[in-house]
Protein: Imidazolonepropionase
Organism: Belliella alkalica
Amino acid sequence: MQTIKYTFIGPIRQAVTMARLPLKGALKDEQLHVVQEAGILIKNEEIYEIGPYWDLYPEAQSIGAEMVNLKGDFVALPGLIDCHTHICFGGSRAKDYAMRNAGISYLEIAKAGGGIWDTVTQTRKASLEKLAQLTVNRSNRHLKDGITTIEVKSGYGLSVEEELKMLRAIKLANENTSADLITSCLAAHIPPKDFQGTQKDYLKKISEEVFPILQEEDLANRIDAFIEETAFTSEDIQSYFQKAKEMGFDITVHADQFRTGGSKVAVDFAAISADHLEASSEKEIQLLAESNTIAVALPGASMGLGVAYTPARKLLDAGASLAIASDWNPGSAPMGDLLTQASILGTFEKLTNAEVLAGITFRAAAALNLADRGQLKHGYIADLIFFPTDDYREITYQQGRLKPSIIYKNGIEIK
Ligand SMILES: [Zn+2]
């Protein structure tokens, strides 16, 4: 029998629970559920109770909880969730970045053989163990920033063997970091240059040879594809996604980054999320708003490429759900600082604190189809972060400079 361990943390100036908020649409800061002078009682790995500190104190003492007495000002939030990253990769693309800033476009670099293919070459050269280690290092950096759940994509292997190497590396990394890594298969990132055959032939091979192994080895339950002129067209992807759906995978899409089309595919296939959307027009915004697909803004990619942000304000006003992710990758989004990026998106798109924080907590959880995290409430995983301040508004105000100084993952403090 497992012994039950209780931990009681507080007093907390403000616990912003992110509970009691709708999954879709605009949010006002007044809607935030903020418990003043709060206490959080943890039972093993889960949140047991949250409420006013002195109300919970007698109960916590009577059940023999370990009392964690916070000294100073703290604001508690659920552990942050980054629902879109590519942090399993080899090499660096500092050269691409310099070229882009010298005036050469992303599409031109890709067509000239640079871009993603450069990372594919570097990633193929790295061993499984090396890739796992690089992924652990980046995950731990994210965890220190308060990001307790991180989605990680493959997509720099682009052959049956090399994609599987990446996916196994991410699985190994997950066993060696305290953060939770959620894996997506992005074998449909770009068409591999060294494949003999059409885009459709490649996708058919992946679906026949990789999909079954994903399930056998429990490597991933999410299938992602980049729908774009230089990657895969809406037409290319139909039978690939059909097969994925039939096998029970969740679908997610890199959509409308440079041209529209991807979000329509996402909605047609009832994808969990449609990510990017920088090029989305009113039509796509309406389509997403009427669907259950979560729109994911990737401000780090806009900053990395120097292009417009996802129309986050319009999406929310139309009634869509909006998550915000870092897209951390070696090409278009090398910064990898989710809180900074989300805060800055807020200033450009005029998002409330509630909308920014929702985008990196419970709405990001929904973008990963996870119903056990992203809010501070009974029964949820005890992933908690504490910012050294007495006012939650300081978090976006300081635009990422204010980081959490105390982090709990599954009820255990990460030192
Ligand atoms: Zn991406």
